[in-house]
Design a protein that fits this description.
Elements lengths: L1 H36 L15 H11 L10 H21 L15 H22 L3 H32 L4 H7 L5 H18 L11 H4 L9 H26 L13 H22 L5 H31 L1
Helix pairs in contact: 1-3, 1-9, 1-10, 2-9, 3-4, 3-9, 4-5, 5-6, 5-7, 5-11, 7-9, 7-11, 9-10
């Protein structure tokens, strides 16, 4: 009975994080962009500092009419938002936030599990683009497929490097094996992983599949109301997952400069928040890449860097073990 209660509490905690953190990231993005770009709109709703902007957005989406195009594949069209969102809930189950088994479920092959499930989330955009019966949406879906093919490989290679260094595929095991002297020689892999993750989430400057000036809004053009809101929520949930994974794999997770017992979760949260701010900052700062520039970055820069990182990790492992 105690085991069942422990599992239920863990799942409840993961579900609460899944419901709260993406909304916090969304609200933060409104405020950060408002300050960086001098936007006045997000600072008015509700009075002080626009605290009710997120509530206003929710009410707006709930009030909009739910429309399914006449020529759309109705079932696939309606299923796509859930396929885009739910994989990130499953990924959160396997990400450790602190020591002493502070994780929904510690998996022996956790790193493979999270990368595989994150790849499934991208299928939601493909389904939306194909099922919408809209040429702009179809083009956005094809761009999503090309982006997934290009950036899945460097992301996997970068994660394999840190798994090789730790000697385990368990996310908890990787954090437990982490040493601060890893940072100088794993930082390239971390940058490759984070950049490839941004591209898979279609975040600026890698948002060609939703380029509003070219293809209206890509795969999501025909979506309205709460279904469109689910795609936005999936994007913010993806930011939470990507930043948490980067902090766990490459920044030591719950390890901090002060060994205060019981504060491991705070270090993981702090690193995740800093990385999430970086994601928002990139959106405000850099323009969208062209499609050819995106492919060139993946195949001629990120993949060679990831392969070089694996080679360096192998050399250092041999030197240490000899």
């Amino acid at each position: 009975m105690s085991d069942a209660l422990d599992i239920a509490l863990r799942l409840l905690a993961v579900f609460a994080v899944f419901l709260v953190f993406p909304l916090v990231i969304g609200q933060t993005e409104h405020k950060v962009m408002a300050h960086m770009q001098g936007r006045l709109g997000p600072m008015y709703a509700g009075g002080f500092h626009g605290w009710a902007q997120l509530v206003a957005d929710g009410v707006k989406f709930a009030q909009k009419e739910d429309i399914v195009p006449a020529g759309a594949d109705r079932r696939i069209f309606q299923l796509a938002p859930a396929v885009a969102l739910l994989p990130y809930l499953l990924v959160l189950v396997a990400i450790p936030i602190g020591p002493h088994n502070a994780v929904g479920q510690d998996l022996d092959a956790g790193i493979f599990f999270v990368l595989a499930v994150m790849g499934v989330g991208v299928l939601g955009s493909l389904m939306a683009g194909w099922a919408s019966a809209n040429k702009f949406s179809l083009l956005g879906g094809l761009r999503t497929a090309a982006q997934l093919l290009a950036y899945e490989l460097p992301m996997l290679l970068a994660a394999a490097s840190v798994a090789m260094a730790a000697g385990t595929l368990s996310l908890t095991g990787i954090v437990e094996a982490f040493h601060w002297w890893w940072l100088p020689w794993q930082i390239v892999g971390g940058l490759v992983f984070f950049t490839a993750g941004l591209a898979e989430l279609q975040r600026p400057p890698f948002d060609m599949p939703v380029a509003d000036s070219e293809i209206i809004f890509g795969a999501y053009t025909e979506y309205t109301g709460l279904r469109f809101a689910l795609f936005l929520l999936a994007e913010y949930a993806g930011i939470v997952v990507l930043c948490a994974l980067t902090s766990v794999l490459f920044l030591g997770g719950w390890h901090g400069p002060f060994g205060a017992a019981g504060l491991g979760w705070l270090w993981t949260l702090l690193k995740t928040v800093i990385l999430a701010f970086g994601v928002i900052w990139l959106r405000v700062t850099y323009p969208r890449l062209r499609e050819d520039q995106l492919q060139k970055l993946a195949w001629t820069v990120l993949i060679p860097l990831a392969l070089a990182q694996i080679a360096l990790t192998g050399v250092i492992k041999v030197v240490i073990s000899s």
